[in-house]
Amino acid sequence: MISYDACLMTHRIAVIGGDGIGPEVTVEALKVIRAVGVDITTTDFDLGGARYLRDGEILSDATLNQLRGFDAILLGAVGTPDVPPGLIERGLLLKMRFELDLYINQRPFIGTAPGHTEAHDFVVIRENTEGPYVGEGGVLRKGTLNEVATQGSVNTRMGVERCIRYAFELASSRARKHVTLVHKTNVLTFAGDLWQRAFDIVAAEYPNVGTAYNHVDAACIYFVQDPQRYDVIVTDNLFGDILTDLGGAVSGGIGLASSANLNPARTGPSMFEPVHGSAPDIVGTGRANPTAAILSAALMLDFLGESAAADRVRAACADPVSGSTSQIADSIAAKLAR
Ligand code: IPM
Ligand code: MN
Fold first, then answer.
1. Ligand nearest to the CA of 131
2. Distance, CA of 224 to CA of 197 (rounded, Å)
3. Residue 46 DSSP symbol
4. Annotated active-site residue in 82, 193, 226, 245
5. pTM, whole model, 2 decimals?
6. In sequence order, what are the beta bridge partners of 232?
7. What are the C-alpha distances in Å from 107 to residues 25, 91, 293, 302?
8. Predicted local confidence at residue 147, as pLDDT
């Protein structure tokens, strides 16, 4: 008989392997979670470009409602060259971010940038439900020489403030206790002013947390030349998207970059995915690095209250190993075997 306590301890995970290398790296991430001894039950959801081509579903409201019942969602990667670009990204990935109110995209970067001897350790907190991603705008006279296209950026005081507050809470739990706002306040004066004022107001509530501001273009230089200056960075959706690819590039490559799409209010499940895409060019070759998916699973364990296990997974990933997709995961899992 299963005790009530044991039931409470089992984390119910919805698994969306997705397309390309997504399923390959997700299987390995689950292998590592089991090796570290965390009790999970998984339910597979067949979603992504391949599913869309088969029966037209991208993410129906019924499926979305099913996902709401889980403790967390583990996603591999979505997108296939056979489907027009953006369709699956908007219909599945962005729909989950918006509908499940995953308003924080947390992306940690630990590594030693090319040409540096000292390691950096910083986290980007990217606003994940607003900015240019909401699709505000439109087109007039399409296809003519007089075509007009606008694409707005939505910044609500509530959305910006809750994101900044999350960054300050995170910073106050870290050793260096520092938050840098990254924006482009000199040009994006309306949105930038809202971000800067919200930042200053929240900062006043955290006197023990130091602050700085960088324009996003300058931040790109610092990411390459002086990434050690950063502890926690908070920024908007689009700047965060671009900066975190650069963060991956200076932290050992995109094969290591993990991310957590969080609903910190816990009104539904959070979603965990590697930063990389579905890489259809290497599918089936065993060349996909599962480390980004494994580190994303570690972020999931953190959010499920399994931080000791998450720390063990991260420690096991610390010394990079080479080999095929499953060999890398096997050697990480071997370090965790009890
Ligand atoms: C990411 C990706 C997505 C984004 C795409 C696939 C829509 O690049 O998670 O960073 O732009 O947010
Ligand atoms: Mn991106």
1. 1
2. 28
3. -
4. 245
5. 0.95
6. 123, 179
7. 18, 22, 13, 13
8. 98
CA of 184 to the centre of ligand 1 (A): 20
Nearest bound ligand to the CA of residue 94: 1
CA-to-CA distance for 88 and 117, rounded, in angstroms?
40
Sequence-distant (≥ 6) Cβ neighbours of residue 272 within 8 angstroms = 72, 73, 74, 75, 258, 259, 260, 261, 296, 297, 299, 300, 303
SS3 for 97?
Answer: helix
Which residue from 241, 243, 254 has its CB within 8 A of the most atoms of ligand 1, so it is best to mutate? 241
* Structure tokens that stand for 150 in this block: 């606008």
Q: Pull the structure tokens for residue 181.
A: 């706002």
| Count of positions (residues) in the chain | 338
Q: What gap in Å lies between CA 203 and CA 185, rounded to an integer? A: 17
For position 6, what pLDDT does the model report?
46
Residue numbers of the chain with a pLDDT score lower than 50: 1-3, 6
Residue 4: predicted pLDDT: 52
Residue 192, sorted as left (phi over 0), alpha (psi -120 to 50) or beta, turns out to be alpha
Q: Find the Cα–Cα–Cα–Cα dihedral 89, 93, 96, 97, rounded to 10°.
A: -100
Tell me what pLDDT residue 12 has: 98
- In this structure, the number of other CB atoms found within 10 A of the CB of residue 295 comes to 27
